[in-house]
Each structure stands twice: as structure tokens, then as C-alpha cells.
Amino acid sequence: MENSDDNNDEDETEWKTSWTDFTVAPSPDYGTVFNSLQTASPQRVILHFDLDCFYAQVEMIRNPALRNVPLGIQQKYIVVTCNYIAREQGVTKLMSVVDAQEKCPQLVLVKGEDLTHYREMSYQVTELLTSYCPLVERLGFDENYVDVTEMVEKRLTHCSSFEGHVYNRAGMETNPGPHRRLAVGSHIAAELRTAICSRLGLDGCAGVATNKLLAKLVSGSFKPNQQTTLLPQDVDHIMGNLGGLRRVPGVGHQTSKRLHALGLVTVQDLQLFPLAGLVKEFGVPTGQRLKNLSLGVDDSPVVPTGSPQSLSDEDSFKKISTTREVVEKTQELLTSLVKRMQKDGRQPRTFRLTLRRYSAENKWFSRESRQCPVPHHLGHKVVSGSTDANVHLVTLAMKLFNKMVDGGAAFHLTLLNVCFTNLPPARGTSGQGAITSFFTLGSSPQSSPTPSRTHEEHPPSWSGHLNGSQEVENNPQSVKTEQDFQMKTLAESTAGSEADQPASAATKSTVVSPDISNHHGATRSTQAPSEDYWTTAGRTFKLPPNVDPDVFRELPEDIQKELLSPAFTRTHPTSSASATSQPVPNPLPLYYGPDRDPASPPRDPASKSQPPLRSSGDSHRLPIREGSYLCSSDALPTTTEVSRTPPSRTSTGPGEPPAADPQRAGGQALCSPCGVPRHMDPAVFSELPLEVQRELMVGWRQQKPLLKAPSSERKSSSKYKKAVVKTGRQNDLYKYFKPS
DNA sequence: AAGCAATAG
DNA sequence: GGTTCTATTGCTT
């Protein structure tokens, strides 16, 4: 997070300005679009804000007792960041817990895997900045760029000094004369830092310069909690002193390797290297951009970030190797993700599952992902807080999972990630940047956790104590009351959030358990099921024939409930949308787990709790394989429009070759002539609402073979719309219990 | 539109 | 360069 890696304040040596081709060609596509000012006045004033050890600060606010101790934030077995007390004792960022404790035995550790509090505080900072100036771009959770060019214009009238440091001008009396705009910028930066401190209780650094690159580079010149302005005449100096190319923002590991291969190791090297050579290696846009970066030239605009474009939750672990673990972990991740999505209020349009496989040699730790559209009614369920959204999403996730992993073969995962993307523009705001909250622009009226303080316009005369940015020190008490208020609001907004123990950060703080799982479930449902029955809340349910009671007992409560929910046994108008309360046949024997036959053996050989019917066979062990269904998802269109079809008929997918499905379906043993799987009573099917039928058909058709199937290995369209009706869901779940 | 690489904190 | 848990952009298909 924070840019540490400080200290390279030596080599004052060279900053020869001897490059040859100074090719600063502002890309035409940049600027001007978001920032019309840019065309008019190329001289921008950009601020960069960087909060000091952000996670640690947040924890110290949550628990002030932590202020005086060496504090580290632990994620898994890593101390991802720490406060300055811990740093003094040798703890650094991303140090292993063991090493950190060796360095600092009294180190207090707070678990930080749950980013909720950090994320919320982070957005409060962005919001606060946005309330002063609309052009705010986030960079991670703890950094923000602000384009204050316009603000500067308005204040330009008179200004005679700088706030804070001026880069490379220590002790020198600097006359703002030619740099009045930057000087005004420095005052604004000080003002904003003061606001962040007084309103949110957070310290941080700021950089003031004429572009994002320089503002970022200069902001770390004096740490912590100070600010620095870079004058144009010192651009060469700051660039020249960067040291390795890796230090140039925008030059990552891969790029620096390629540059190194060209013989370039210092920023100077890059500055002096012919543009043509760079273009040859990287192409025109990247080549030019790299060259410009080396020169401190950056015309990229500050793009207002607005609300996030994706929400994701992930967890890493030593090993997951059974599909049941995958289901449980996915469920856990989704539970939290869905809550976040709900708060956000936007309806997600695509869903993605990504994973990381363990591979001994190939440490090229690659992530693989599969994504698919979120059926609109499911998206609606998500945002409307429907309790069964989760089950449907797990099902969806498992379909994606099956596209990547052959559950029949051994696998070893070390990470799972669930993600909602393709979010519609935030409501109530003009896409982005607008005045309103970043969290909740939501449709949900109740959920407005945004403390949206009325925080009036700060008069330019912020006066008083900020004529010395250094003195914006930790004055916890002075901001205490306001802080407390903030935190309270925040706590309320997140109350009932899953995860861990609420307030007792201190108690768990010293705990260092490098283990990974926090197995919730296991002990939950303790009732012993008798055979195929399950008794809960005084009622006895018959378990679906394919559900092993032992497996069932171990399932997350959510899924259990879902399986036993009224919707399962009786008609139950689901709250919303299209689910036009069409009665559903009672005990629901239908099995249309898209690719599973009820009689099929379990699919997950690793699942010990399914002793019966272990077919050890491989790809052909299934009497009726997914392959049979595959009614080639490839042929499926990606749009959702549906040509109308008679009720009892299967609706054909949109662009689908009309005659195709019955054909293909008919070719499969599983499908009745009309395209309905044979385990589904056509009469029942025809009575379902049209839309439901359509969903089912899509679900049936879109199934794809496992990777095992040698032929149709790659590609395939997507659109794993799945059956979403009440009749559908527990059937879909079957396959995780008794997979094909 | 999907999947991945690269970059970032 | 690899740890964690995100998030964005751009390339390729």
C-alpha cells in the first residue's frame, strides 16, 4: 500500500539534460475529454495524497489503545503494514509474521484480511476530497490524485508563499513568483490534509506538481505526514534520483525486465535511449509513454473514479482439493460479497470466478477465471437482499468452476475469488464524480450508511493552524469527539456484518494464528438426520433422494435452509420479479441438474462422505455424461432476447438455430423429443411460467463438458444462465452432492 | 464479451 | 520477486 522504500536521497550526481529526442506528444485521446481545462491551460496543478500506513491508522482509530504500541496488520502469515512504532523496531511491510515477531517481540498484531473498515474509511477520504474538488482519482485504498487546476485559478489573486516543503529547495527562500499556481496548490494541499485529519483523524503526505507522475513521486519526499511541492526546474533532479527504472510509476516488473534486456537500468538510460528503439520493442503508445515517464512528462488526466467498477472478495489458503470445500468457500465469499453489492445498490451484470492452482515448479502464479452474465432476476435478488440469491450464485459459481477444474481429477487450489463486474452507472449521480456518496447511491433507501456529513463548503480562509503543515501532528484528542462520531456511524453501517468479532480488536490482536481456515460451520446443525429425513424446527423434511444426509449435515446452514425452504416443498411466491407465483409441484422430484442424471455416481471422488456409487472411472464413468447435454454451448447466443414460443414448447435461444435444440437434445438420451430432459415431466414443464421455461431451457442447453472431454476443450460461448426458479435451484444444487 | 497480463497499493 | 486482498486498464480472441 503505502510507498515505503524510502531512502534514496543520496546521489545528487547527475541530472544532465542531454537527451536528444524530447518527444512529448500528448496523446490526443487523453485530456480534453474529462478536463476541458487542459486544452485551454496545459499547466495543471495536481495533488497526490498518500495516507501514512493506512491500515494501521484505521486500526488505531478503531482502538485508540493501539496508538502507543508497535502495531502490525496481519493478513494470513504476512504483516502487510505496521505503524511507525513498529517500524522503528525493524518491522517492515510485507514481512512474515515470524520475522516481524523476532524483530519486535511486543508487536501487537491485528488481523486485516477483512478489508471492510479500510475500504469504508478509504472512500470517506475520497469523498471528502471530492467535496472540495470533483476531480479525484483513487489509486488503491490509500492514495488519491486531485486535479485542482480550476481551484487554483480561482484563488490565484494573490499568493506569496508555499505551504510545506519545496523539493530540493531546503532552506532556500523560494519566491512563488513564477510558480504562484503551484504555491496555491500547496495551500490547497495543506487545507485538504487538515480536513482529512480533523474530520477523519488520518495523517498523510501530499505532493504538489504539474502532473500525476510528478505529484506522486514528490509526495513521499518527506514522511510521514508532510507535503512537498515540486517546481518545474527540479523535474530532472527528481527523475534522475529515482535510481532504478522500477521506481518509475507505470514501469512494473515485466516492463523493467524488458527494458533491462535493452540494456537500460537507470532512468537516465531510458531518457537517453532513442525513441525508435522503444517503439520497436513496445509499440508506439507504450514506447512513447515510457520515454515520457522517464522525463517526468505525464499528460494523463485525473479521471474521477466514482463508484467502483467491480466488487470482489477473495481468500487464499494452503490447499483446497475437494469440490465440497470449494462450495463452502465460495459460499462464504459470496455471503460477504453479496452484502457489499447490496449496499452498493447497483445490479451486477456479470459474475466472475477466479482461482489459483498450486503448481510446484511453475511459480508463475497464474490466475484463471471464468465469467458469465448474471441473469437479471438474479441480479435483482442480489441487490434486493433476497435470501436465496446466495444459493443461485453458488450454483452459478460452480458452473464456472467446472469449466476450469475437472472435479474428477485431483486438483489443488490456493485461492478463490468471486467478483461482480459490469455494474450499471450509479443512480442519482451523473455516472461518476458527482457529489453524492460513493457507497450508496442505491436503490435501497434504508441502506444509507454514508455518514454524508453536511460538511459545508470550507471557506478558503481555513486560517489558523495550518501555516505549518508539520504541526498537523497527531492531536488525537482535539479530533476525538468528531472521530468518535464517525466511528460510531461507521460501526452502525457495518453492524451485523459477518466475519469476525466486533469490537475486541485488542483481544485478537495478539493472536497470531497462521492457520487459514475459520471453519464456521461444522458444528452448526447437530441434529442427526435419520436416514433421508431431516428434522429441524420441529418439522421433518425428506431429504432429496440424491442428498447424502452426511453431506447435508456438513453443509453451510444457508444451503441447508435453502434445501428445506418452503419453496422446496410448497408453492411460495418468491418476493420479486418474474417469478410469477406459479405453483410448483409439491415434493419436487424433478432433477434437472443440468448435466447430472439422478442416478449418476458422485462426481467428486474426493468427497468422502459419499461412499455409495463411487465410480472410479474417468471420463466415461458416467452413464450419461455432461457431454450428452452439451448441446453445445458454443451455439448459444450471448444475448438474451428470446423469440417467442408456445408455452409448451421450448423457447429457442436467440440466434439459436431454431431446429437445433430438439435435434441435439433428441440426440441425447436425456432429452425428450421436445427438448425437455426426460427426468422432467413435460406436463409439469408446460405449466411453468413461460419465462421460467425459457430459463430452464437455457440452463439445460448451455451445459458444457468438463475439461476432461478432449474435444471441445476451449472456448465455447458463455451465458450460463441457469434455471432460476424455485423448482430449479435445489436441483441445481444436487450436482454438488451427487455430481454426475 | 471473455480471459488474461500487467500494474498498482 | 514473493507474501495479501483488492482494483483498473489494455491486449487478444
Architecture overview:
By secondary structure, this protein is α+β, with helices and mostly antiparallel strands. It is built from 26 helices and 16 strands. Strands 6-7-1-9-10-8 form a 6-stranded mixed β-sheet. A 4-stranded mixed β-sheet has the order 4-3-2-5. It has a 4-stranded antiparallel β-sheet with strand order 11-14-12-13, with helices on one face. Helix 7 (180-200) packs across helix 17, helix 15 (376-384) packs across helix 16 (389-404) and helix 16 (389-404) crosses helix 26. It starts with 35 loop residues before the first helix and ends with a helix. Residues 1-39, 430-435 and 440-740 have low confidence and may be disordered. The structure holds a DNA duplex (9 and 13 nucleotides).
Could you name the key traits of this structure?
DNA-binding; disordered C terminus; alpha+beta; 740 residues; 26 helices; globular; 4-stranded mixed sheet
